[in-house]
Specification:
Radius of gyration: 59 Å
Largest sheet: none
Structural class: mainly alpha
Strand content: under 5%
Number of helices: 1
Helix content: over 70%
């Protein structure tokens, strides 16, 4: 069996070319168009996602920096308050010590005065007590 080319081969080639052209117009071009549109949308969304991630990372860094600044500011304020409290404590202790010292001095002076007065009173009465003791021991009155 021998194949001999005839006019039908030309019709087949023409039919093939027409079908390729029609398939390209009806199927391939719309599919390629949709795929290009989808690629554009995906690329746009990818860009948006990258932008959002970058923005979120920047906001995260800014937030961390703000937190660190607030912590350092809080620590500094805490130190200032602690120093002020220590100074106030020293002042109060000095006031209390001064007040206690003055009250102690007043009490010492009062006790010394009372002791002096008691001593004077006892010295004045010592002769009377000595005479009374002597009378009791001797059993007679002393002059």
């Amino acid at each position: 069996m021998k194949i001999s080319p005839d006019i039908t081969i030309v019709f087949q080639i023409a039919n093939f070319l027409v079908l390729i052209f029609l398939m390209n117009m009806i199927v391939y071009k719309p599919i390629r168009k949709m795929m290009n549109e989808r690629k554009g949308v995906v690329d746009g969304l990818s860009g948006d996602i990258e932008g959002a991630l970058t923005g979120a990372a920047d906001r995260g860094k800014a937030l961390e920096a703000g937190i660190a600044a607030a912590r350092s500011k809080g620590a500094a304020a805490k130190e200032v308050l602690a120093a002020e409290a220590a100074e106030k404590e020293k002042e109060l202790l000095a006031q209390i010590s001064a007040k206690a010292a003055s009250e102690l001095a007043v009490l010492k002076a009062k006790i010394e005065n009372e002791a002096r007065e008691a001593k004077k009173g006892l010295e004045a009465e010592i002769n009377i007590f000595a005479s009374a003791i002597g009378e009791k021991i001797l059993g007679r009155t002393l002059q």
